[in-house]
Write a structure and sequence with these properties.
Layout (H helix, E strand, L loop, with lengths): L1 H19 L11 H14 L3 H17 L3 H10 L3
Length: 81
């Protein structure tokens, strides 16, 4: 029981440090096609899970800001992603 509490405390401190750095945890479920894309990107880029998510959000936001979100969405639908 003491070991469980130590692990929980370690995780709590880690989450607090991440919050202090201005980071936020994001969770969700991924469909099989997206998981395949994730695995390919992780393999080719060498990025961590956190880096993949952050960069995916930044690329999507850049497409939105440049008025290309519709084009991106159409491409994803056309290529069954």
């Amino acid at each position: 029981m003491k070991n469980t509490n130590a692990n929980a405390e370690k995780q709590r401190r880690f989450r607090e440090r991440q919050k202090e750095k201005g980071r936020k945890e994001v969770r969700g479920y991924v469909n099989p096609k997206a998981m395949q894309c994730y695995q390919e990107l992780a393999e080719k880029s060498g990025w961590t899970d956190s880096e993949l998510l952050s960069n995916a959000l930044r690329v999507t936001y850049a497409a939105y800001r440049c008025g290309q979100i519709k084009l991106l969405n159409e491409w994803l639908k056309k290529h069954d992603y």
